[in-house]
Amino acid sequence: MDEIERKEHYKMMTETPVPRLIWRLAIPTIISMLVSSIYNTADTFFVSQLGTSAAGAVGVVFSVMAIIQAIGFTIGMGAGNILSRQLGAKEDEEATITASTGFAFALVLSLLLSIFGIAFQKDLMRLLGATETILPYAEAYAEYIFLGCPVMCLSFVMNNYLRAEGKAMYGMIGITIGGVLNIFLDPIFIFTLGFGTAGAAMATALSQLISFCILLSFFLRGKSSVRISLMKVSRDIKLYLKIVLIGLPTLMRQGLASIASVALNVAAAAFGDAAVAAMSITGRIMMFAFSAMLGFGQGFQPVSSFNYGAKRFDRVRLATKYTAFVGTILMLCVSALCIILAPAIMKAFRKDDLEVIAIGVYALRAQALLLPLTGIVTATNMGLQSTGNAVPATVLAMARQGIFFIPL
To answer: pLDDT tens, 166-214?
Structure first.
């Protein structure tokens, strides 16, 4: 990016009316989040056609995918918020060092997770709630998810970088192409080629590889405000700690969500495969429902962090209030749809299994009731995180999925 483009981008981030700027960044992010949720839900939908145990396997392995996503988002949002404030303060070289360091950090962690997961796959699946009938399907699915772990994780990191610097459209392109490809590949790999549950994981890993290549190309071709270079990786341990500290609220949000999912699977396993399958389907639907709010919040974050770095605190306050208001209205509508359409949604996944439908309808409606509150929670949590207030942001993130949910 040349100097003229940098100045134009800086002007856009600090002078465009706040509501318009948030929507400009949020729409591509919402699309990215929805596409990601759709292809995750597509896995559940197609695999569900193989049987109740297969559907339960996707729910079990979803906890692993949530961990991969948590690592990618923790580092991506931690480094992304730092580099966004650095760009706002016109510290471009420091922003490149931050981006390169976060990328290398995520690469090492994801490789370690991949090796660990493959080495202890069977024991891990049992720990995550797989019954003996679900276990073979879960192992087949998990194998390719662990193999694809590094590219999945790094795709999340780069997508967050692009969003943090106000280039959400580029992130949307990479994620959407991979997501659409996954939806087309799922039935081919599962049914046409006869790979079954493993085919869904193959499709996911391959589509994530395509997304990774597209996203990386934006950084290598100078479309980003920062560069990713192994020569720019910092040896300063303080930067790694800062990335983790700023990204900690994200880790708590998504890491504890994974633990909560495991807790639900373990609890549901006592009631049989139908309960595990129902909670698996419900979890994917709620993830899809919440992705709209999460996408809007992630459109707000770069507006907040960039203007905080530029010392435009009036714009930061306005952005936070606007996000809370719009988010509440948005999630009120989503909540109503989930409650009204719960039976139809569950029948779309397992139309012949009345037990799965009954459990799923009850669970979906119960979880949808409080969705409207996530507007205020998301705006507050992401606002604190984007301005570097890591401790209160972390406590707030821990409250929902950890402090209150797991004991209950």
So the answer is: 888 999 899 889 988 998 999 999 999 999 999 999 999 999 999 999 9
Length of the chain: 408
Tell which residue, 356, 368, 361, 369, has the closest CA to residue 342: 361
Contact, 93 vs 81, CB < 8 A?
A: no
**Residue 53 structure tokens:** 């145990």
Q: Do 304 and 344 meet the contact criterion of CB atoms below 8 Å apart? A: no
Q: What is the pLDDT of residues 55-107, one digit of tens each?
A: 888 878 888 888 898 899 899 989 998 998 898 888 989 999 999 999 999 99
pLDDT range class, residue 131, cuts 50, 70, 90: confident
What does pTM read for this prediction?
0.78
Count of beta carbons in the 10 Å neighbourhood of residue 380:
17
What is the token pair recorded at 311? 């010392």
Quick one: DSSP state of residue 232?
G
| Torsion 323-324-327-329 (CA) sign | negative
29: Cβ contacts below 8 Å, ≥ 6 apart: 163, 168, 171, 172, 295, 296, 298, 299
Q: Which tens digit of pLDDT belongs to each residue from 327-344?
A: 999 999 999 999 999 999
Beta carbons of 104 and 23 less than 8 angstroms apart: no
Joined together, the tokens standing for residue 164 give 């943090």
Q: Say which residue the tokens 């079954």 belong to.
A: 196
Decide: 253 and 397 in contact? Cβ < 8 Å: yes
- Around Cβ 5, how many Cβ atoms within 10 Å? 12
Q: How far apart are CA 262 and CA 113, in angstroms?
A: 17
Kindly report each contact of residues 332-336 with a partner whose C-beta sits within 8 Å and lies 24 or more positions away, as own/partner.
332/371, 332/372, 334/289, 334/292, 334/293, 334/368, 334/371, 335/289, 335/368, 335/369, 335/370, 335/371, 335/372
Pairwise CA distance, residues 228 & 216, whole Å: 9
Q: How far is CA 196 from CA 16, 199, 356, in A?
A: 50, 5, 21
